Amino acid sequence: MKFRLPHLPFGHAELEPFLSSEQVDTHYFGHHKNYVEKVNQLVIEQGLPDATLEYIINNQDGKLFDNGAQAWNHTFYWMGLTPLTPGPNANGKLMEAINRKYGNLEGLKERFIESAAALFGSGWCWLVATPDGEIDIVNTQNADNPIRLERVRPLWTCDVWEHAYYVDYRNERKEYLRSAWRHVNWEFIERNYSTEEVPNMTRLMTDPSPTAPHKNA
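Request: output the structure for the sequence above.
Response:
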């Protein structure tokens, strides 16, 4: 199968002032696009033309894992953001799980920001669901994904590679994280929490029918 760069679920300027259109374009066209192109090349070179991204994450190493996981991670990252602020908050069973672990939504936010800010070097901070339905925060280095590392289900992620925020925030990672929390797509998190299946980014990146057009602003 051939993976495609998925359309963003918002216009390139619609996250301002959280992320400028320059930051989005640098991240999306300069980094995400490169991972997608590279994984398409590598699956052919390594004789795995039918491999899904989820298979690659769980079963491969080296350059194929790095590029496949980064293609998955970036798609998941964009899907978890919304221009709406303030948008709908967590509710129902998800909110109950958050309250059990972190006391309230503000408690989760502060623990997540603290964890992501402390991650050394490049990587990702994830909100995940454990097999028993509880909520946790997991940091991964570089391209690593908790599907492989922890056997838990990703609900939301924030990219803390410098390329995700350096145009707008320079080295102020914590400022970027606090701004990101004003654009959390809770509907996306609710959908991921309500199912026991790992989110399928392969489906999104191979569907020939785009969910939304590219918008340049």
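The chain has ten helices and three strands.
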